[in-house]
Each structure stands twice: as C-alpha cells, then as structure tokens.
Design a protein that fits this description.
The protein is an alpha+beta fold. It has helices spanning 11-22, 39-44, 63-73, 84-106, 119-139, 151-168, 179-188, 192-211; strands at 2-5, 27-30, 52-55, 58-61. It is globular and about 45 Å long. Residues 1-78 form the GST N-terminal domain.
C-alpha cells in the first residue's frame, strides 16, 4: 500500500488520486505533519510539495512525476497510449494543464474571499482563463482516443471542476467552455475512477470555498 501525503482540497492531490483509482491501487492519504511548511514535513519531504508518494524507501513529489512512476510500475491499465504520436499528445496535454490552464485558475485563489476581492485581478484572471480555454478547445481536437483515461486527462478534469465552482460562488463571471470541452468532460465522467473521485472530492472543494465566505 502506498502512502500519499495530501490535503483534502488540493487540486494536484485529486489529480493523482485519479491515477491511483484508475489503476486500482491501494493507498492511504496522510496529512503533512505540522502542515506543508513545517519542519516535520520538510524533514520527510524536503521540497514541501503536495502530493508526495511514499513507496518503501522512495519518497517522490510532483504529481506528474508520481503519475509516470506509477505508469511504469503498474502498466495495466495503461494511462499512456501506445505509439510515438499519441504518447506525445498525452504528454502535451499534461504540460498544457500544469503550465498554462492550472496557473490561470490559480490567479483566482487569492480572490475567493469577497471581502478582499480585487476586481482588477478577477478581470485579468478571467481573460487569462478564457485564453487558455480557447487553446484547450483546439488541443482536444487532436487525434487522441477518448475510450481510455490518459495521464494527460487527469489534471484537466479536476481544474474544470474548479472553474465551475469559481463561477458558482461568484468569484468569476461566466466562462465560455466550447462544445469540444463540454463533450470531453461528459466523456471523462463516464470513467468509474473519475466518477468516484468527484463524488469524494467535490464536497471538499465546497468546504474550502465555504470557509472563504464565512
């Protein structure tokens, strides 16, 4: 059984759990002792990052590095497609999420509390997210099969849920998700691992948002 240092509301922890669930692996979630910046946690995980996976004497951080490690150690069911081009497309999708889409979402987190919200920052965040969603609409038209869940899908699935909740709570104005994104999200939610994770994760998202509105 793997040990995963995580916190309930973390996007990247949820991204990793999609991999663990889809591969039907056993793990236990453990909160970082003392918090992510504590001396106790840094003694275990020097980077202080979440999630962190412990496998025997190995402690590995960064959700993408962990996902690729699990893919190599547990190759079935495969979460990287066969073939040079499909594998590259899946990795491109992963990098787009981690370096473009999620950082755009992250611009909203400091503005979740309506008492300290800055309209200029929300306007800038909305523009950046809109730009990234337009790019995602195009990327999703690439010839990458949707009959399996790939590593490149996991972050996008979770970040789209966060975008929904930011609109729901009035942090962001309405976002225009194109027809390709809408179809893609519906198809992803048909995977058992995705459905199971969202059932568990969505309440934690709402709890975190509610804590910012008290």
């Amino acid at each position: 059984m793997y040990t995963v240092y995580s916190v309930d509301h973390s996007l990247y922890c949820a991204k990793l759990r999609l991999v663990l669930r889809h591969k039907r692996l056993e793990w236990r979630d453990v909160p970082p002792p003392g918090g992510t910046g504590s001396a106790d946690y840094l003694s275990l995980v020097p980077t202080g990052n979440l999630p962190a996976l412990v496998d025997g004497t190995l402690t590995l951080t960064d959700s993408e590095a962990i996902a690729e490690y699990l893919e190599e150690k547990h190759p079935s069911p495969a979460m990287l497609p066969s073939g040079l081009v499909p594998r590259a497309l899946s990795r491109e999708r992963s990098r787009f999420h981690d370096t473009r889409l999620e950082p755009a979402l992250r611009l909203t987190f400091s503005n979740t509390d309506p008492r300290t919200r800055r309209p200029d920052e929300i306007t800038a965040a909305h523009a950046e997210i809109t730009k990234r969603l337009a790019a995602l609409e195009i990327l999703l038209k690439a010839p990458l099969s949707r009959d399996q869940l790939w590593l490149g899908d996991c972050g996008i699935i979770i970040t789209c849920e966060w975008l929904d909740i930011m609109v729901e709570y009035g942090v962001l104005p309405t976002l225009d998700m194109g027809p390709e994104i809408i179809r893609y999200r519906a198809q992803m939610q048909e995977f058992d691992a995705v459905a199971a994770e969202l059932v568990c994760y969505l309440p934690h998202m709402h709890d975190w948002m509610d804590s910012k509105h008290r």
